[in-house]
């Protein structure tokens, strides 16, 4: 029974992976290759576009640097509680900014401080600030992990012979070099492809250019034009993934075991610090969005007007989250996770959404030869013109979340337990199903919630693919922003925020459970 | 509402559900805020569910037009409800639109109906120069669009990407009205003097509100939208295109050739070109100006461009090429 279930999940996940990532990726590459042969110049960005690259990378570098600075106190707070999983609330709080759509953070700051310094900041500086205040949990978690494994013991040894400051600079910082590098690469790659924050701040970046290009390209030339423009981004992304995987600190049994218990009172201080950081970077802008006297009335009007769209968006995003996690489970079910899965899922996760949308259109726009097979052509046209293409587009975009969930579920069970179950006769898929997936189901559910929340705020893929129904919430939010309809904008933003709540609660629940189960 | 629910929600879990109820698919680049009440009214009146694919601010009409072209002889949509005219005219020339004279076209001047009945134009918007009245006096602004190329104005200008939406048609109108050489020189002057290019008309308005630009080229309804939400100091002037009026761009309604729900599409087209819809759009927050002279309140009486809309549509490929070469290279 367990094996049969495993086979079904792996088959479904593999089909999903092929449909959402492999075929679109190949279609984009082939389309670009074919078009490039016809128009060699198209694969080389113009001088203005190279200038946009310069602006984009410059902003991303500044955003990364600022996020690293903001991450330090957060990393300290997480590390202070000994292990990430030993303070579920601290861990869950660190996730909150990541689950908030960055565009909502922009609206929040604009509403809250629009008449003060935020308005006077240059738009590029605003982007840098919003990216940093949104993305800091990523380096915070990675740095905290490094601090707990290595930095702490090094620090405590070093302070025996020098001052704490010197100890940190000369002994601890070098030992965390890899963690810093990994964090910086992840953030940099993410910011380079991010569309919504520059769009909301009126800054034209490479991701904006890609959206424009996808919008004005005819069917046959979309692949070549989009890929022609984005290949430097893809090169940067692939290089980033390679650098990050090379730098990823290898588990060190000796130092990994040197963990120190911490007094409960200090956990309390860490929690307070984390609340302050999350409050400043995330709570304040959200207050700016939601803090309207007429919010209740606006919410009522929004729900009355847009409830089909709200339900449709939630349904489609949840389905895409489920598919993303099933894909992740399939890709990580083996003894060693499939490398093509790792590269494919992360590549689709970090390239600009317009590239993913264009890949979907390139793959699923029915070819003329299909007209010879009317039934197949009709099915193909239906797929292209309706919700399934959005579903797989979003699943492909956030497959990396599913991959992480699958990986955590598979690796979350202690090796000793797995070896014991092998001795008891369970092996392969049966073992994966019974020991990992069944035991770690909260991790998988959490993955679904996180992927769904991120899909709710995805604009670029949905904007490029565009189907009649449902109109996605992210599209409505953009529309309201551009029509200056602040009431509806606030109400729809609150709906997006609410969509992040299940993810946050599930992260908290999973961390609690892992602590209880001793799998921290 | 029930129709919309069926169309929007039940189709999610159920393949082919929409075939059970009568539906019509419309590609719509008119703002959702304006279009939605019209579609709701149509649904109430006819019981036909309207499923709309809307655009996004950056892609605007161009993205939907490319989609129609890409779908070729198997279109997904029945009706195009566009926020501008010239893309629709290009689409008609490519054979993507079906000749159809809607029932309720009475009162629309012939300038606004295609000679082959492939499209009908309704509800005009003006191209305006918007500025913050708290920082700039109206008499500081140029009186004509051509003067805007002068250094003292171009240096403080924000405008949307001229490859999209109404800005695209406006620039093409300059090519048609002024000739290629003058228009190219104009664009070069904008570029040389540092005019700011942003991704959409509303982004241009935001640039003015933020103080990053002193004035911007945009559509009349963007100014009204911003004013309605409290930006009361935002004002506008209507510079001259050379014929004593600014550029006015109508919305267009067209029936897509071989659409899957052709009969329902015809009913929707007839509804959207009706005087009732024009009146509703005129009374909306966007304050469109009807193409039917009898529906106007007398304050604004748009003139059609002397060169004709067809000449402007014909200028689009040339203006697109120059925009790419001069502004976007």
Task: Give an account of the 3D structure.
The complex is a heterodimer of chains A (520) and B (329). Chain A has 520 residues and is mainly α. Chain A has two domains: 271 residues, MetI-like fold (Orthogonal Bundle); 247 residues, MetI-like (MetI-like fold), CATH 1.10.3720.10. Chain A contains 26 helices and no strands. Chain B is α/β, with parallel strands linked by helices and 329 residues long. Chain B folds into two domains: 170 residues, 3-Layer(aba) Sandwich (D-Maltodextrin-Binding Protein, domain 2), CATH 3.40.190.10; 142 residues, Periplasmic binding protein-like II (D-Maltodextrin-Binding Protein, domain 2), CATH 3.40.190.10. Chain B is 40% helix and 17% strand. Chain B is built from twelve helices and ten strands. In chain B, strands 1, 2, 3, 4, 5, 6, 7, 8, 9 and 10 form a ten-stranded mixed β-sheet that branches. Classes of the chains: A mainly alpha (520), B alpha/beta (329). Chains A and B meet through helix 11, helix 15, helix 18 and helix 25 of A and helix 1, helix 2, strand 2, helix 3 and helix 8 of B.
What attributes characterize this protein structure?
heterodimer, A: 520 residues, mainly alpha, MetI-like fold, 2 domains, 81% helix, B: 329 residues, alpha/beta, D-Maltodextrin-Binding Protein, domain 2
Radius of gyration of chain A: 23 Å
Q: Could you name the CATH topology of the largest domain in chain B?
A: D-Maltodextrin-Binding Protein, domain 2
Helical element count of chain B?
A: 12
H-E order of chain A: HHHHHHHHHHHHHHHHHHHHHHHHHH
Which structural class do the helices and strands of chain A define? mainly alpha
Write out the CATH superfamily name of the largest domain in chain B: Periplasmic binding protein-like II
**Low confidence ranges of chain B:** 1-20
The average pLDDT score of chain A comes to 80
Kindly report how far apart the N and C termini of chain B lie. 47 Å
- Distance from N terminus to C terminus of chain A (CA atoms, Å) equals 30 Å
Q: Segments of chain A where pLDDT lies below 50 for 5+ residues?
A: 252-265, 516-520
Number of domains of chain A: 2
Our count of domains of chain B comes out at 2
| SS strand fraction of chain A | under 5%
């Amino acid at each position: 029974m367990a094996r049969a279930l495993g086979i079904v999940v792996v088959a479904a996940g593999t089909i999903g992976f092929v449909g959402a990532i492999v075929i679109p990726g190949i279609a984009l590459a082939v389309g670009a290759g074919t078009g490039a042969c016809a128009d060699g110049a198209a694969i080389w960005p113009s001088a203005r576009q190279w200038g946009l690259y310069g602006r984009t990378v410059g902003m991303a570098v500044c955003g990364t640097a600022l996020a690293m600075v903001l991450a330090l106190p957060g990393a300290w707070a997480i590390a202070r509680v000994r292990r990430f999983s030993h303070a579920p609330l601290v861990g869950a709080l660190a996730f909150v900014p990541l689950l908030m759509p960055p565009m909502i953070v922009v609206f929040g700051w604009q509403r809250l401080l629009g008449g003060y310094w935020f308005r006077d900041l240059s738009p590029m500086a605003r982007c840098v600030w919003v990216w940093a205040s949104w993305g800091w949990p990523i380096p915070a978690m990675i740095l905290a992990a490094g601090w707990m494994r290595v930095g702490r013991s090094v620090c405590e040894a070093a302070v025996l012979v020098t001052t704490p400051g010197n100890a940190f600079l000369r002994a601890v910082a070098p030992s965390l070099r890899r963690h810093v590098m990994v964090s910086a690469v992840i953030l940099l790659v993410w910011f380079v492809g991010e569309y919504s924050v520059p769009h909301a701040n009126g800054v034209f970046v490479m991701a904006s250019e890609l959206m424009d290009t996808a919008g004005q390209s005819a069917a046959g030339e979309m692949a070549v034009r989009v890929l022609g423009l984005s290949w430097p981004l893809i090169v940067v992304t692939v290089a980033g993934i390679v650098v990050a995987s090379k730098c990823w600190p290898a588990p060190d049994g000796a130092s990994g075991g040197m963990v120190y218990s911490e007094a409960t009172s200090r956990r309390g201080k860490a929690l307070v610090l984390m609340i302050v950081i999350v409050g400043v970077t995330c709570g304040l802008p959200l207050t700016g969005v939601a803090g309207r006297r007429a919010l209740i009335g606006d919410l009522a009007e929004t729900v009355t007007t847009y409830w089909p769209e709200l339900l449709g968006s939630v349904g489609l995003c949840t389905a895409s989250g489920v598919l993303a996690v099933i894909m992740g489970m399939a890709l990580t079910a083996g003894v060693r996770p499939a490398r093509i899965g790792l590269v494919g899922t992360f590549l689709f996760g970090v390239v600009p959404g317009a590239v993913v949308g264009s890949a979907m259109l390139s793959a699923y726009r029915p070819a003329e030869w299909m007209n010879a097979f009317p039934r197949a052509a009709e099915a193909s046209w239906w797929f292209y013109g309706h919700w399934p293409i959005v579903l797989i587009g979003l699943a492909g975009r956030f497959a990396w979340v599913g991959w992480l969930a699958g990986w955590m579920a598979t690796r979350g069970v202690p090796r000793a337990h797995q070896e014991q179950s092998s001795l008891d006769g369970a092996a392969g898929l049966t073992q994966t199903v019974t020991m990992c997936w069944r035991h770690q189901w909260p991790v998988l559910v959490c993955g679904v919630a996180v992927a769904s929340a991120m899909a709710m705020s995805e604009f670029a893929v949905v904007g490029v693919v565009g189907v009649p129904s449902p109109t996605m919430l992210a599209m409505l939010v953009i529309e309201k922003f551009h029509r200056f309809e602040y009431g509806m904008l606030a109400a729809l933003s609150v709906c997006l925020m609410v969509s992040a709540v299940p993810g946050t609660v599930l992260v908290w629940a999973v961390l609690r459970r892992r602590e209880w189960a001793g799998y921290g | 509402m029930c129709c919309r629910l069926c169309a929007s929600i039940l189709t999610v879990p159920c393949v082919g559900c929409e075939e059970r109820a009568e539906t019509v698919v419309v590609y719509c680049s008119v703002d959702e805020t304006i279009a939605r009440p019209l579609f709701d009214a149509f649904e109430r009146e006819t019981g036909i569910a309207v499923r709309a694919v809307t655009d996004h601010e950056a892609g605007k009409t161009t993205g939907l037009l490319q989609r129609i072209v890409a779908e070729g002889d198997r279109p997904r949509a029945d009706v195009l409800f566009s926020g501008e005219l010239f893309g629709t005219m290009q689409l008609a020339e490519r054979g993507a639109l079906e000749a159809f004279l809607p029932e309720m076209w009475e009162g629309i001047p012939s300038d606004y109906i295609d000679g082959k009945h492939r499209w009908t134009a309704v509800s005009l918007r003006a191209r305006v120069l918007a500025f913050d009245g708290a920082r700039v006096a109206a008499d500081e602004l140029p009186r004509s669009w051509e003067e805007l190329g002068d250094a003292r104005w171009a240096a403080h200008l924000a405008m949307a990407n001229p490859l999209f939406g109404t800005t695209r048609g406006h620039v093409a109108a300059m090519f048609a009205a002024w000739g290629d050489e003058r228009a190219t020189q104009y664009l070069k002057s904008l570029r040389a003097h540092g005019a700011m290019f942003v991704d959409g008309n509303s982004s241009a308005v935001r640039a003015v509100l933020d103080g990053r630009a002193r004035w911007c080229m945009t559509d009349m309804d963007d100014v009204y939208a911003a004013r309605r939400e409290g930006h009361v100091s935002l004002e506008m002037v209507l510079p001259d295109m050379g014929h004593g009026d600014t550029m006015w761009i109508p919305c267009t309604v067209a029936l897509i050739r071989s659409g899957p729900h052709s009969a329902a599409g015809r009913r929707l087209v007839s509804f959207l070109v009706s005087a009732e819809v024009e009146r509703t759009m005129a009374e909306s927050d966007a304050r469109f100006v009807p193409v039917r002279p009898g529906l106007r309140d007398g304050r604004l009486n748009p003139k059609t461009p002397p060169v004709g809309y067809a000449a402007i549509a014909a200028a689009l490929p040339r203006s697109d090429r120059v925009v790419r070469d001069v502004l976007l290279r």
